[in-house]
Design a protein that fits this description.
With 882 residues, this protein is of the alpha+beta class. The structure holds 2-acetamido-2-deoxy-beta-D-glucopyranose (NAG) (8 copies).
């Protein structure tokens, strides 16, 4: 088939999009998945949308996704009628030509534009024939930045319709151990809270978000058009060695440096505040509020200065003074009285701020200049280049300049260039009710300097990203990537030299480089290099720009990044309209959108217990309350122990498994010849107040009640030997629908109608939705969503059910929805006894694979009997008529 070449470039207009929302009768988004994998703070996210044209005629089908500004798109594909159309990244000029031709033919252009503070929207469309389907797949990558002590992964979910098969899967892997992790954002509140599952185990964490179709319409920011909101995963990692985290793979390395055990150094800060007429109204009011709060936070050992400007300069004091109670009081009075008037003389004001700092040399301190403005210079020196060169001369690399651009009337590029030329960054402050918080938030990021003149030195390293940093602040992180000469680790010696107050400190780590096998290390290097080249380009004169641009372009092409210099070209079927989209080039160092606003209560999920290292002693004492059930399940349903099978001789030979005690957390396998000891299956029960969960074993060929409510009944068959989990799972919904799931197929009986399903598909029976995927079956019934994972280990296949969305009906019972037990530790180190409901119980330290995740990680647990764990006889959960 002949095809026309068509392009999709990312296009940087700040125009309001006229969003044509799809008409549900026309086309149906039947599946929408977001899959994000984060390793070493590098996030790769894949958005897959599957859409069917339900019409009798061909139809233009749209795909819209919002991605973080800081991210680069690295792949876009469409699948239509069994054919794949793969995007290719090309130089923008090249793509531009094709675009112009297309537009001159009257064809439409697709757009990527900035949306709000932190997102960009990617939008394209394709014509799909009657009753055909299209799959869109977009991949983007981003390096998460540490700010105020955490990393934030923002996932925007807005499929534009309620979707039957909707899910978000996030997997975080951090070799340095995840210190804490929680879920925030508008989608993690209220109605949707119980559709989120968060599990955290040392180096790994999982977040699953599986809202049902009904829920997608009823949540806060959702409506008939389905979901529209953010899921924000917030976490931090442990920081043990002072040199930080250094990983290498295939000759590339990435170094994350964020030492925590340093003392703060006193600072000298001068605030230069624009009070020109354009600041009138809420802006000046919020500036006053923010300034007063910031003054409140200055430490007694800090010195500060405060000047406001329009076409003239107004001083609180002509020099820096110590942040004593008295001085702060007087400065706050000055701040309260700031009024808007006059024009904007940025040049004079910044030079004066620099003069004040230069006139205040103080050994062992860190100086910072902060400019807040909302407009272009229109008084005094107004030539932008002249201002930049004056400021550069005045500051002379002595301290960083941070520029805060308030609103959209500022020439942000001018501020950004000026900050970068002076070792700082620029940030946009959005005109909104929380502008004062944005200002304060930015200040907090630089409030606690820990090091100055940080030099990151890598002997045996080459092609390094930026290595010199004027200051390092508490809560932030320095990241350097590069190549290792000849990939020789022996001669690769990293070290950091910096000044902490008056002392020179040196961070060394002889064997700190950890070798991993991960292509992403190289991509992190490419990502950082491109970002920094683009920043560098801003600071250069026209004549110098070309070389840097060329370098950035080559890397963008090689790593298939859609940057401001490249475009993605997609080949679509003949006769298609042309889309050209460019990546926006605004906003400053991307993602500088101020703190995320979605800091609403992070509900029960944030209380998800984390599993400390094996050697860590558990908390002192525990009291268990009846807290509402979370979808995390007080119960994880993991594992039994699967012995190696090679020793199996005949039917009589069965493996008896024992959990050994804590320290090693290994299990021993003993062969016996008893005929009656069947294989045991191990289940986790979450225990509030214990750092690791409880676990118990169930053995025998039995059928367990997994979940039982008014409408829904789910049971599962455990096998007596060989298998690791359930062989089949049976679901009854009302009296009409019955579903049997085994490792091969699904049998659905809906009234009189019986159907069998083996391939991937979506099956609807009454109000039940069953989504069969390759490795899992996803069942949505009312407000409950259960996923049945298909595990394959050692040649065996078995099923493992997980609750992804808990019912609001609290009359639900079963092994999947156990209430947590009330646990108290009776005696610690070594812990051997627990008190559950006032009863003392002996426990032993053990571990088990957690089959509620695909990777089945091994988690530690306290092993107790089923009766103690369930607080009732196991028989209550056994369905007798097998
Ligand atoms: C998500 O992406 C990762 C990495 O590409 C892949 O290994 C994993 O199978 C994906 N998960 C799902 C549920 O598709
Ligand atoms: C740095 O921040 C952490 C919290 O994020 C805090 O515990 C620590 O005390 C701070 N260090 C200094 C020197 O202020
Ligand atoms: C890395 O640096 C070497 C010179 O040190 C240069 O020849 C090579 O092209 C660089 N590689 C990349 C990918 O920039
Ligand atoms: C980085 O700092 C080191 C030590 O202070 C200095 O020798 C080097 O020239 C600096 N490099 C750059 C690129 O500024
Ligand atoms: C070097 O490696 C050993 C063994 O892995 C470890 O015990 C030691 O703490 C490491 N040293 C440093 C400085 O990281
Ligand atoms: C145990 O739980 C109770 C109530 O949930 C809480 O007040 C207490 O701080 C917890 N104790 C520990 C050691 O976590
Ligand atoms: C459960 O599955 C096993 C193996 O797939 C099969 O032999 C058995 O008959 C099934 N049990 C029921 C009750 O369907
Ligand atoms: C369900 O639980 C809530 C709060 O835990 C309680 O107020 C309500 O009465 C319970 N409903 C039923 C039917 O038990």
């Amino acid at each position: 088939m002949e095809r026309a070449v068509v392009q999709i470039t990312l296009f940087g207009l700040l125009l309001a999009l006229v969003t044509t929302l799809p008409n549900k009768d026309d086309w149906d988004i039947y599946s929408f998945h977001i899959n994000s994998t984060v390793t070493s703070r590098y996030a790769t996210t894949v958005v897959t949308s599957r859409v069917a044209n339900r019409m009798d005629e061909s139809k233009e089908i749209e795909f819209q996704v919002r991605i973080p500004k800081n991210a680069f798109i690295s792949k876009f594909r469409m699948f239509i009628d069994g054919e794949m159309y793969d995007g290719v990244v090309k130089a923008k000029e090249q793509a531009q030509q094709q675009y112009t031709e297309a537009v001159s033919r009257g064809q439409s252009a697709g757009i990527v534009s900035s949306v709000g503070r932190t997102l960009e929207e990617f939008k394209t469309s394709v014509t799909v024939a009657a009753h055909k389907k299209v799959t869109f797949e977009l991949t983007y990558e981003e390096l998460l930045r540490r700010r105020l002590g955490n990393y934030k992964l923002q996932i925007h979910a807005r499929p534009m319709q309620p979707v039957k098969d909707f899910k978000v899967d996030v997997y975080v892997h951090e070799q340095a151990h995840i210190n804490f992790i929680k879920v925030q954002g508008g989608l993690s509140t209220k109605a949707l809270a119980n559709a989120i599952t968060l599990t955290h185990a040392d180096k790994q964490a999982w977040v699953y978000f599986y809202p049902t179709e009904d829920q997608q319409k009823t949540c806060d920011s959702c409506g008939e058009q389905g979901m529209n909101g953010d899921l924000v995963i917030v976490y931090d990692v442990n920081r043990d060695t002072s040199l930080g985290d250094l990983k290498r793979s295939n000759g590339y390395f990435v170094h994350h440096f964020a030492p925590s055990s340093l003392t703060r150094i006193p600072k000298n800060v001068v605030f230069v505040i624009d009070q020109s007429g354009s600041m009138h109204g809420r802006k000046i009011q919020q500036t006053r509020i923010a300034l007063i709060r910031i003054l409140n936070d200055l430490a007694a050992e800090d010195f500060f200065g405060l000047i406001t400007f329009d076409s003239s300069i107004f001083y609180w004091k002509r020099r820096l003074l110590q942040a004593s109670m008295e001085n702060l009081h007087s400065a706050k009075k000055f701040a309260e009285a700031i009024t808007d008037r006059g024009a904007t003389d940025i040049n004079q004001a910044v030079l004066e701020g620099a003069r004040m700092l230069n006139a205040h040399p103080r050994e062992g301190s860190a100086s910072i200049l902060i400019l807040l403005t909302d407009g272009d210079p229109n008084s005094g020196v107004t030539n932008l280049e002249k201002i930049q060169s004056n400021v550069r001369k005045a500051i002379a690399d002595e301290f960083p300049l941070y520029c805060l651009g308030f609103g959209f009337d500022v020439n942000f590029k001018f501020l950004e260039t000026m900050s970068l030329q002076n070792n700082g960054v620029a940030r946009r402050i959005y005109e909104d009710t929380d502008a004062d918080l944005q200002l304060k938030g930015f200040y907090e990021e630089v409030a606690t300097p820990l090091l100055t003149d940080v030099a990151m030195i890598y002997m045996g390293g080459t092609n390094l990203t930026k290595t010199n940093f004027s200051q390092y602040y508490n809560g932030s992180e320095i990241v350097v990537a590069g190549q290792i000469l000849d990939n020789d680790v022996e001669t690769f010696i990293p070290q950091v030299v910096a000044i902490s107050g008056t002392r020179t400190v040196r961070f060394l780590g002889t064997n700190a480089t950890e070798t991993v096998s991960d292509d992403r290390i190289q991509r992190v290097w490419a990502y950082l290099t491109v970002k920094q080249l683009l920043e560098k380009e801003l600071q250069l004169s026209e004549a110098e720009k070309d070389k840097v641009k060329k370098e950035a372009l080559e890397l963008s092409l090689k790593y298939s990044f859609v940057t401001p210099l490249t475009s993605m070209v997609v080949t679509k079927p003949l006769g298609e309209s042309t889309d050209v989209l460019h990546k926006p080039r605004e906003g400053g160092p991307a993602g500088f959108g101020g703190p995320l606003r979605h800091t609403l209560d992070s509900l029960m999920l944030s209380s998800g217990r984390r599993f400390h290292g094996m050697s860590q002693s558990p908390p002192v004492k525990g009291v268990l309350r009846n807290i509402p059930r979370t979808p995390t399940g007080y119960l994880y349903m993991p594992a039994d122990y699967m012995p190696e099978e090679e020793e199996e001789e005949d039917e009589d030979s069965v493996f008896l498994l024992q959990a050994t005690d804590a320290a090693t957390a290994t299990t021993t396998t003993t062969t016996t010849t008893t005929t009656t000891v069947p294989l045991s299956h191990r289940f986790f029960v979450k225990a509030d107040n214990l750092s690791i969960p409880l676990c118990f074993d169930v053995s025998g060929k039995i059928r367990l009640t997994l979940l039982h409510s008014r409408e829904l009944s789910v049971s599962g068959d455990l096998d007596s030997v060989a298998n690791g989990g359930f062989t089949n799972i049976t679901i009854h919904f009302n009296t009409e629908q019955h579903i049997k799931i085994d490792t091969d197929e699904i049998i659905v009986r809906d009234g009189q109608k019986v159907t069998r399903h083996t391939g991937e598909e979506i099956i609807t029976a009454g109000s039940l939705t069953v989504i069969k995927r390759n490795t899992e079956v996803d069942v949505a019934a009312g407000d409950i969503r259960i996923v049945i994972l298909l595990h394959k280990t050692g040649g065996e296949e078995f099923l493992w059910p997980v609750i992804r969305q808990q019912s609001s009906d609290n009359n639900t019972e079963g092994i999947l929805v156990l209430k947590p037990a009330v646990v108290e530790e009776v005696q610690q180190t070594p812990l051997t006894k627990l008190k559950i409901n006032d009863q003392e119980i002996h426990v032993s330290r053990s571990s088990a694979a957690d089959y509620s995740h695909f990777l089945a990680p091994t988690l530690p647990c306290w092993l107790i009997s089923a009766e103690d764990a369930l607080q009732r006889p196991l028989d209550d959960f056994i369905v007798t008529h097998l």
